Amino acid sequence: MKIVMAVIKPFKLEEVRDALTSLGVHGLTVTEVKGYGRQKGHTEIYRGAEYAVSFLPKLKIEVAVPAEIVPQVIEGIALAARTGQIGDGKIFVVPLEKAVRIRTGEADADAL
Question: The pTM is what?
């Protein structure tokens, strides 16, 4: 089992969710986050004054999936989240040692 974390642009959430659903991923967690990568933020003008926005709004999506479908999940997220512009985001994959469904007590792959 693996946890796939993706940081994406907020307006791409529905497309990513649809891509994951089509792969059979039934649950995901979404968190509103702020951050920056290579673009290091940007400048905006408000009431004639220019100011720097250092941290840009993003969404972090986390899904727990069986290890066998990780390549498809990565490809699905990448295709759905891509705009071709700087700041499209990143995908991280980390091992998942144990999962337990609280309601039923099912463990590991059965809990997903």
Answer: 0.84
